Amino acid sequence: MHCHATHSTTLTEPKTGRPAPSETDLEPRIAKLFDPRQPVRHVLPDHSILLQGEPADTLYQIVSGTVRCCTFSEDGVRQIFRFAGAGDYLGFADFETWHFTAEAVDHVILRAVPRPRAEAAIAQNPSLQVALRAMMVRGLAARERHMFMLAYMPAEDRLYRFLTDLAARRGASGFTVLPMKRRDIADHIGLTFETVSRGFSSLKRKRAIEMRGNDRFRIHSDDLLLAA
Amino acid sequence: MHCHATHSTTLTEPKTGRPAPSETDLEPRIAKLFDPRQPVRHVLPDHSILLQGEPADTLYQIVSGTVRCCTFSEDGVRQIFRFAGAGDYLGFADFETWHFTAEAVDHVILRAVPRPRAEAAIAQNPSLQVALRAMMVRGLAARERHMFMLAYMPAEDRLYRFLTDLAARRGASGFTVLPMKRRDIADHIGLTFETVSRGFSSLKRKRAIEMRGNDRFRIHSDDLLLAA
DNA sequence: CGTATCATTGATGGGGCTCAACACGCGTGG
DNA sequence: CCACGCGTGTTGAGCCCCATCAATGATACG
Lengths: 228, 228
Description:
Chain A has helices at 21-31, 115-123, 126-152, 155-170, 182-189, 193-205, 222-227, and strands spanning 40-43, 48-50, 58-64, 67-72, 78-84, 89-90, 101-104, 108-114, 176-177, 209-211, 216-219. Chain A is α+β, with helices and mostly antiparallel strands. In chain A, a hairpin with a 4-residue loop joins strand 10 (209-211) and strand 11.
């Protein structure tokens, strides 16, 4: 029983990507861990930021750019379980070694903080702990939502939801930049890049999306979509 | 590019379900939140423990039995993102309202603690916070592992891995009880119950598993499996 | 024995993977 | 300037795995 409506299902999330009220208040407490002026790291497209299995001795905040967080199976299949963007954090889901690999999709700028210092600050700051737990709760729910997509949604719906979620996170109306390649999208939503490409074509054909070049898109209103 | 070997891929987890050393030390601290003698709740098979959307005013520890944690899409499709068993906890991934529904698979016995009391205890106990964060980290990794399965593994491999993981969690060698129905398994690994059933038959035929009735199974060694 | 629930097995069709060809932009170097 | 290669994206043809629909067993319970 697949999801008929292309724009289907948000499960029960408040709305896509909208942080809970508590989150809005608490997020700055996490950001304070990072010195807003100091150590900044630049990473070029397709270069790795951190490697699965290596010591997780640093935490990062993404200043700008897009990061793909992925794991590789023994036979080299890549699974991107998350795209992280400006304002997101890397490293709070590990203690000793990284359980995933992070790579730059485009030019990425990071702020870094050594783990010992961060952990010490966390230990002394109860409201920071609450903020962290809230962040991880959102991470759990996001992964469950993604699991549902992988298990039950047909190809085109997966792509449509990926695009709407991305546009919602970027916030601004109008065209949204699509920093990643078709292959990256495919490895994220569990398809081949050919199927992703067909999905783009199909969505364009039925006026669900509009594209400028192949790295900018815009979602059309649901009303238009229903007419198709 | 599917996973050829039936016993394939653990990604990079230490080993199935084995808690990290830190976890072994810290887990009792979470357990201490629950009074080992007092308020116990019994839930009959297929009855609900907590409902998506309702206030999350209680935390639970599972004393015995198996719980399915699931979400429902608008059109009624069920996704079981986790089976929780004896020793597992429910409720640390929410603050105000439940983001999922928990139902008893078999007869379930729970210990409960009111959230305000638990949160107060957490706020005052730093090492408990560390334990909680470790638990949530494991939850994140488990969901990512599951995402990989849903995205890339063929039906039979999914079932085989589900069974091996279950047997590993139960620990004891010999036959393992399978508390849930085919339909539950299907909704967990993203298949239909018919395909799950065919998977059982196929695994039996090639001597990968052995069954006693249809609710007890045993995994055969990989050596035997390779010979098939 | 009749009924209900669950599991198994078969037949059929379709969605997406695979293999393959082609289009397009962009760089380099003749 | 055009040729050529290369990376990326699109489109087509064919096939296979799994969802779907359907029928038959198996077991428990009245």
